[in-house]
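As the next step, I selected for study one protein, both as residues and as discrete backbone shape codes, as given directly below:
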Amino acid sequence: MAALSRLQARIKENFHETTRDISLLTTGSTSSSAKYFDTATSDEKIKEISKLLDSRIEQEKLEGMKRIIAGMSKGRDMESFFAVVVKNVGSTSIEIKKLVYIYLLRFASTNSDLLLLSINTFQKDLSDSSPLIRSMSLRVLTSIRVPVIQGIVMLGLKKLVNDRNPWVRKTVAGGLAKVYSIDPSSLNQLIPLLQSLLSSHSPLTLGATLNAFLVICPDQLDLLHPYYRHICRLLVDADEWGQVVALQLLTRYARTMLEKPEGAGSTPPPRAQSSTKADPKQDESDDEFAGIDLDLAMLLHCSKPLFQSRNPAVVLGTAIMYYHLAPSGHASIGQENLVSPLLKLASTAEDESALMAWQVIGAIVEERPWLFADRFSSFFLHSSESSQVQIAKLKALATLVSATNVKAFLRECKQYTRFPNDQVAEEAVRAIGHGIQTQQEAKTAGLNLLMKLLKSPRDALVAQAVIALKSVILALPASTFSTETGTNPRRLVARLAKGLDAITHARARASVFWLVGQFAASEETAEGGLGWDGVAPWVPDVLRKGVKGFTEESEIVKLQILTLAAKVLALCPSTAKLQLLSQYLFMLARYDASYDVRDRSRFLHALLRGVRAEQKSLKAESSTDESEEDEDDDLGGVILRREQVRLVLLDRPNTAKEVSAAGTSEYEVGSMSRIIHKKLSGYEPVPEWTDDPTDYSLRESQVEHNKPVPSSFANHPPTPVQPAANHKEVSGGAQPPPVPIPQHLSSSFASITRSSTNSSPSGSLPMHTSTRGAKFKDLDKFLDSESETEEDEDEDNDSEDDR
């Protein structure tokens, strides 16, 4: 028993010693890291940090650094410990050094002077055996914004640009952009380093390298000639955000350097071709890619698997690239390939991503509605969607309306007007008005629907229905309306005027007064009403109501009441009652609190001088008012005749062009500037297709010649569906089999190797499918493994060259 007790005590002591760093003590503590985030004791621990960092015991220094990092993660200001922390950058403990570099990376830009004291240590760490230390030391060096040491930083970049580890080269790419921001004159020295990174065979460095290219020399696209096919080959295996940057850059390159394919742009495909399914035998023919630059076909083919990515930004970026580059009606790389992935993303993503996807879809529908013409039902609203998504779908739905789906469109919009959200209901009313203006078949049913909405108990719907009716009446000439009751424009305006008392929305009331003035003229002899010649019988009562409640109306309504009175005076100037009514109205407006109303009153009163003068001349023989004549004569200026005043006030605006151009934007599809209708910082339009494409031989280089040439190719596009765990096989070891591409492309791309069919787009499958994390439990071992696999690949390539 005694021996057993001693053995148990020894095992317990060894266990305590070996697990001290991770604090898996036998005291029952479940989480040792939680003590660093304990708010009750964190203030006391922070006071001891300086003492711990000055200690000679490595364990105490590690404890102090852990407290600092924990404080940083909680948002505390830990910059006051910078001088104490920087002294430990030369520690022999790898754990302490990692935490010190994490701290320095956070505060290096604001404490460059103190960092200069340890610059020798940073230079020494550039040769450290750990790739993480090499990477962190270079990041700290490039973060020191002091022009004096840029020569040392440049030496460090040149030293590590060909590092065996891709993670270190990725840090070098980020450092190039930092150096250029500090010293733009170093461009000539940075470009060779950038070219060396572009030739890297690891997809891990692609995103950072292209990002550095956009910072350093975004307009020198000719530098990408030797690396274009190489980038296309690595695109499918790059990290997700690197893929987004690559797609944007390659889109600009293709539009600037490659030949425009037949059918690219907003030209819809022939009806027979778009309705007929592609024949597999036709795909094998040599004419499948006729009229398409082979390098452009390669880009579209290599980027097509990115539609399967789980990152919404990658899917949107791929769709936008196909929108700008792909021809229409092509079986494998046509613009039609973007439809299904976009609709899938919009229907399955989270609210923010779904809204962005629907915004992009709406922009594409505005420019090329034929792409989504067969997916009309996909734009129907669902109650579970957010109001922003519903509004975006309604806008696209109104653009897709045609003679074949107009009945379903009106039926759906009628239901959407009953939605509890006022914004969605108003957008549905606007969609009905747009459908009436664009489709002849929707006029009768749509107008009846809008007139029924005038009786709705919801003020927002009534107001929007009035505004929609105003747009419809102005957009369509009177000759296109039926003469039946309810569809004639003058009768519609009369019905609106009849329900004026029930309309409370200011903008809607202003629209009614404006419409009454526009359709007040009548050539028939007045038999009913007040008997005003030249004016419809229902107009005087509308004017009376406006004058009676003039002081209680809003500013926009007052302006339209004044305009209505001026229009009626121009039509019927000889009526005494109208003159008295208008005189009273102008007197009220003269002393109104709004200066806009006062200005409008003075303007209209002066505009009607010619009308008044004409009436006085007709009554000159019977009676004259010399004082009033003198008052008008003293004003000076041009006096318009009655016909000219009618032309000024009653001229009907032409809104046909506005309706045809509704929804168009000057900004590119997929840009944030188009979504918010304002140019943002960093916005760059996609260049137009070049008229002088470059020769394809410029894109041939030694970067691709050292890759094995596949013996045969399949005749179908790649469909990568394998788990992301196979990514390790791609980066090192034996070369995987190539992705199948169309057979006729193999002759032109004999030196180009595609990615593996077993590899999948970065992020296209859940992360838990990968088994790589079970093998490596230490970051250094993981980074070293990347270096070893690349070394093995280089050895294999050298052995093949020797043969």
